Amino acid sequence: MSVKQFRLARAANIRFPLIAFHRIFAPIQFFTQNGYMAQAKYKTHLGMNDILPGEVEKWQALEQLIRTEAKKFNLEEIRTPVMEQTELIVRGVGQLTDIVSKEIFSFSRGDDNYVLRPECTAPVARAFVEHHLEQRGGTQKLFYIGPMFRAERPQKGRLRQFHQFGVEIMGSDDPVADVECISFMMHVYNKLGITNTTLKINSIGDPESRDSYKKALVDYFKPNRDKLSELSRKRLEKNPLRILDSKEEEDQPFIEKAPLIDDYLNDASAEHFNRVKTYLDELKIHYEVDPHLVRGLDYYTRTAFELISPDLGSQDALAGGGRYDLLVEEVGGPQTPAIGFAAGMERLLIACDELGIELAGPKQVDVYIVTLGEAARTWALKTLPRLRTKNLSATMDYMGRSMKAQMKDANRENARFAIIVGDNELREGRFTFRDMEASEESALTLDEILERF
Ligand code: HAM
Fold it and tell me: pTM for the whole thing?
């Protein structure tokens, strides 16, 4: 088994019969002595992953793409702490939501209770109020990238620490804001080449529309209460809209025939939704109206949407969002209509993998200086900064290895060029400059080498 195969297997959490193995195979014994094979004493929490070199480059590429594209949409980045006061999240996201009732990581310090943020809309609303962002004038067009925490049962595409990028547009109830928000979301996926997606949209109405719809749903489901799943029976009392979200088989026949929100939207909500759809049509952004799309967070009003990918299996929601016209007031701020979305970055990366989309090329270093002898090592150490001022990535051996081992290391590091230095080269002031790709060498002075770049 190669080190690479071993690391892959370890990443997949395959356990090895260590004791029997390392008694038989000397190389594996070497690994155990060096800590490779030994079972780690300390581990990440279930559903929280280290992002290791080799993987992290994809994240950097994705984050860079998001920042570049956000700039084109005139979005400004906001960063909020990973912990928030419990009350903010309970009020913002909703006491009865799955997120708050089951999935929160909470802790206390002194008399204060905190949670690890399960999402970033309530925190951004808190920051908006705390820093009076409305005083900056106009609409606040914000985006963020960062980790969120939900104590869900981990599976592919569902983690306990996951990452979102998201947008919050605050201070406008114009359907243009809804459509710009959706448009940015679609733009990022299209830019990456993830085009096999379905955009589902719905309007869950303003509070007036929703109240009459909720009443209609209760009237409809109540006679069949006993035939509903346990979860839906609970939801019937607390939040009947969420029954429409149920995946339970026994609920489906009732959901199919349930009243539709469309018939309960008041004129203002219907007009808003129609304009959102018209603008989406104008932009040729394809969508499906899904009257059962209600979303799992309590703050939504009017527009709600989700982006679904068939390449993701059961956790098929790439992104989701909607309007939350009352949230800012709910957390103590001025009346501020707003719309936003958040996208799961792990799910986006899974979709990239499934579709063979490469976000980052292989690791590469521009120059590796191979040395023979102490004087050459000192020269190399002093030359590295000169190469780096040329915006090159440059490295050398840190382990006092033989030249052969250093050349091997240069190959492993995927070095584009090597400079080979020994006492003779130092005396003559000419160094072997090796093009690793073309396997060509020339004897050059350092100035000549620097001129090459
Ligand atoms: P959400 O639908 O809860 O919305 O999450 C948005 C996206 O985050 C999901 O579509 C999914 O891709 C990803 N996600 C959620 N939970 C997990 C998990 N446990 N593991 C991996 N990925 C996950 C919100 O969070 C709202 N704050 C969106 C929003 C912004 N609405 C308005 N503004």
Answer: 0.89
